Amino acid sequence: MAAGAAGPVELGFAEEAPAWRLRSEQFPSKVGGRPAWLGLSELPGPEALACARCGRPLAFLLQVYAPLPGRHDAFHRSLFLFCCREPPCCAGLRVFRNQLPRENEFYSYEPPSETGASDTGESVYLQLKSGAHLCRVCGCLGPKTCSRCRQAHYCSKEHQTLDWRLGHKQACTESDHLNQTAPDHNFLFPEFEIVTEAEDEITPEAVEMEDYSEVTGSMGRILEEELDSMARHESKEDHIFQKFKSKIALEPEQVMPQLLNHLKADRLGRSVDWGVLAVFTCAESCSLGTGYTEEFVWKQDIIDTP
Predict the structure, then answer these.
(1) Cβ(278)–Cβ(300) under 8 Å?
(2) Who's near 65: CB < 8 A, 6+ residues apart?
(3) What global pTM score does this model have?
(4) d(CA 164, CA 171)
(5) 216 to each of 24, 79, 220, 222, 239, how far by Cα in Å?
(6) CA 201 to centroid of chain Cα atoms
(7) What percent of the chain has pLDDT over 90?
(8) Please, is 100 exposed, middle or buried when counting C-beta atoms within 10 Å of its C-beta (0-12, 13-18, 19+)?
(9) Is the CB of residue 2 less than 8 Å from the CB of residue 66?
(10) What DSSP line would sit under 104-164, residue for residue?
């Protein structure tokens, strides 16, 4: 993952992290798990987080903490990306932006603590400080309630059925612990922190020259007619792919080429897949109160590369 269109490029690396580092009050960038919501009121509802193609609930994919320096109303600012992971659809994508001033009703004015040693990280928080309840399966807004215990909340009938089948049927009467524990529903993506670093000073051109030297060193072994054939069939896709390989060769462990692997999305035709995900936001990052604003996400499949 790379950020910074006009300024220095920041690369994202997926790393394991303790649970306390991935909670809302730490303002994390992260992949998978449940969303660490920034604004704790006016969350996107189930209708906003349903796949436009198949209608099923979207899964949280990642969030990026991207404050705007010099903007009072965007001292805290995060983007939240969701996708459909239900085969054979695996197509829907939606992205939301939320931003807050430094002085707000949810968080301390001072920076968060850098330690969490006293936090065991075992609890799952399914109710926000604002009072809003979250779905036990996905961690999104849960307006539906179990009619039996009145304690378990869900975003949809699909997730209520899934939770009932995977343990809530037996645990329904143990209401004292429902807001702190939830079974593994095999719906969430694996969770990692996204740690950002500035790109090294090594330029892609230097890597390209090294690659070129390796290629030219072996050219003498190839017949002239074979070279002519290669030149005739060289495509724009080949050139673009070589530039991509040169770019990621600088930092091969960055999230950009590795995200699908981290998500364990490797079932061809039956899991999420993409070539590029590009998120576009309002150029002015207009503030709409404490709520979440939907932005635009563009998906380019590998086979659609121009």
Answers:
(1) yes
(2) 27, 28, 29, 76, 77, 78
(3) 0.79
(4) 9
(5) 52, 44, 8, 10, 16
(6) 27
(7) 47
(8) buried
(9) no
(10) -SSS-SSPPPS--TT--------B-TTS-BB-TTTSSB--EE-TTTS--EESSHHHHHHHI
**How many C-beta atoms surround the C-beta of residue 298 within 10 A?**
12
Cis amide bond preceding 190, omega within 30: no
Return the residue matching tokens 């030149």. Answer: 231
Residue 38 DSSP one-character state: S
Average pLDDT over residues 252-266: 69
Write the secondary structure of 209-278 as one string of H (helix), E (strand) and C (coil): HHHHHHHHHHHHHCCHHHHHHHHHHCCHHHHHHHHHHHHHHCCCCCHHHHHHHHCCCCCCCCCCCCCEEE
Residue listed under structure tokens 């896709």: 237
Residue indicated by tokens 């991935």: 22
* Rounded distance between C-alpha atoms, residue 244 and residue 237, angstroms: 10
- CA distances from residue 25 to 41, 128, 165, 247 in whole angstroms, order as listed: 14, 11, 33, 34
Q: Which residue has the tokens 């690396």?
A: 13
Q: Does the N-terminal peptide bond of residue 143 adopt cis geometry, omega within 30 degrees of 0?
A: no
Residue whose tokens read 């404050």: 67
Q: Does residue 232 carry a pLDDT above 80? A: no
Angle between helices 236-249 and 204-218 in degrees, nearest 10 = 120
